[in-house]
Amino acid sequence: MKHFVSPYNQSIDLKFPEKITVYDTTLRDGEQTPGVCLQTPEKLKIARKLDELGLHQIEAGFPVVSKEENRSVKAIVRENLDAEILVLSRTKKEDIDMALDCDVDGIITFLGTSSLHLKHKLKFSQEDALNICMSSIEHAKDHDLFVAFSAEDATRTDLDFLKKIYNRAELYGADRVHIADTVGAISPQGMDYLVTELKNEINIEIALHCHNDFGMALSNCISGLLAGATAISTTVNGIGERAGNTSLEELVMTLLLIYGVDLEFNIKKFYELSQLVEELTNMKVPDNKPIVGRNVFRHESGIHVDAVLEEPLTYEPFVPELIGHQRQIVLGKHSGCRAVRAKLGEYGIDVSRDELCKIVEMVKEKREKGKYINDELFNDIVRSVRGPFNF
């Protein structure tokens, strides 16, 4: 595994949980991205690829939403994947019964717990919320489901009430509680404090569902894991409502290469999975997206290209082959002789030093005039310098 990270990381004594569960919600929260609507065959393709990666749990959907959603969940269950299949359920008996009808392994049942949600959305008192949640957990456990209770908007919920409802969830048999940072409003330091406080109160697993509204979803997850959380919610490419969720590929690769925590996933599937989700959701991955973006392993600057051709890790944190990606040398105004010679080498073309300098000069001129140096234009430039040949 070819990579090189800062030696200063090794001087910090950090303790992660011995076991970390990743439950991916691309098929549920990811699909709640405005404009995204996946049909059953598309959901099956993504679920299979997630399973090939080695995901622990897949949140397959929200069965009560529609008949098609219900069919999708049942179809995923019938695939007999290695991953456990979870679904989202409101704290309502009919939702849980529908999950049972889908024959899933477990549910994530949720209710807003902040004063904002209780007052303006639910019109509930805190006591109402406690009774409703416990009744749902009890019903699900009576049918032998894995039950995770998620406090929606947990990071803006009164801490005493949050402790109370999680304590009660544990008492009623919940297997895991989820901290939902619903609008990405917590900081890494705040997450550390919150998880530490909760660990002093409850003995069941704590999971984190972080949104990326302030660009801190990944940092909040790392902070929460170090404080004792043991499960993380992710989406492929970080898609999801508003600014999205914790990116699956960023979380896994950060844990592996920055912190040395190997979740034993088949990481060579990452780029393929990313492209599949991009295609099926019609949500373009930004070129500069960490890990899977097209620019992560593309190099134009002459100084960079010279170094990368000698040793890729000079300007790459890890080699692209690790995740099924590939390196690309891009020609443009910053290109030097070595980059152009490497490009010529791809086609088995040898040129003199004078011809090479002329080609480099023309590449720069064309790019500065707004032309993208694709293979066709590069072909024309080379022909104009050294005459006809077969590319």
Description:
It is a single chain. The model has no long low-confidence stretch (mean pLDDT 92). The chain is elongated, with a radius of gyration of 25 Å. α1 packs parallel to α2 (67-78) and α7 packs parallel to α8. The strands form two sheets. An eight-stranded parallel beta barrel has the order 1-2-3-4-5-6-7-8, surrounded by eight helices. Strands 9-10 form a two-stranded parallel ribbon. The protein is of the alpha/beta class and 391 residues long. α7 (188-199) links the parallel β6 (176-181) and β7 (205-210). Helix content is 42%, strand content 12%. It is built from 14 helices and ten strands. It has two domains: 20-281, Aldolase class I (TIM Barrel), CATH 3.20.20; 298-386, Orthogonal Bundle (Recoverin, domain 1), CATH 1.10.238. The protein has helices spanning 40-53, 67-78, 93-101, 115-122, 126-142, 159-171, 188-199, 217-227, 248-258, 270-281, 302-310, 337-346, 353-368, 375-386; strands at residues 21-24, 57-59, 84-90, 106-112, 146-152, 176-181, 205-210, 231-234, 298-299, 328-329.
Fold blueprint:
Elements: E1 21-24, H1 40-53, E2 57-59, H2 67-78, E3 84-90, H3 93-101, E4 106-112, H4 115-122, H5 126-142, E5 146-152, H6 159-171, E6 176-181, H7 188-199, E7 205-210, H8 217-227, E8 231-234, H9 248-258, H10 270-281, E9 298-299, H11 302-310, E10 328-329, H12 337-346, H13 353-368, H14 375-386
Helix pairs in contact: 1-2, 1-10, 5-6, 7-8, 13-14
